[in-house]
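Bug report (template v2)

What were you trying to do?
Predict the complex of my protein with adenine.

What happened?
Run completed; filing so the output is reviewed.

Input:
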Amino acid sequence: MKKKKLKISVVTLFPEFIENYFNFGIISRAIKNKILQFQAVNLRKFASDKRGTVDDRPYGGGLGMVLKPDVVIKSILKLSKPTKSAPKTRVVLMTPQGKVFSHAMAKRLAGYDHLILISGRYEGFDERVRKFVDEEISIGDYVLMGGELPALVISEAITRFIPGVLGKDDSATDESFANGLLEFPQYTKPEVLEVAGKKYPVPKVLLSGHHGNVENWRREESLKRTKKRRPDLLK
Ligand code: ADE
């Protein structure tokens, strides 16, 4: 079978900020191994004047600036053309008005060949840009200065679903949300941790070497923890 490869293009006014992030850790290894291809595209390149103007005042008045629709749409049209090597493309707008990002969305987006993530700054996008995107994603109910961090957050969550990116094949299947539950508690050495005269032991069952009992305990703890912290996941 041909190796799955994902390309991510982030359109931004701060390409250096984005590029820097991709030089570290698991993501940089995936790029070196040619499982992931990544580019930060400077939105200013698509401005139509010499000064590289990307924003303007809002019609109707008000504070702040709005990203010019022609500039953003030009970047989308340039980047989103499907190619032979990347037939399945998806244009995603980073905005607090989008659908709130989740494990399931990350998994679905990992199935595309090319993701184009549009991150804005200032007060937002001209409404007409929305006609040229496939979906809108928010990373939570708060407003950031721009879409750069959201683009990185979703890039990282998506990358973890590409086969070969994580060291062990199954390390993405055990973790929180993979089975609709939060992950069970984890422990490592020492067996009894001592801090300020107080002892914190590891649960006995994990030291028993009995796989069946360990599995049952983990499943129960997962369920208990999810019920307590995130009852919404059980619905
Ligand atoms: N841009 C600004 N805030 C955002 C958020 N919460 N999610 C996605 N994009 C954003």
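What did the reviewer find?
Helices lie at 15-21, 25-32, 69-79, 103-109, 148-159, 211-229. The CA atoms of residues 46 and 210 lie 61 Å apart.
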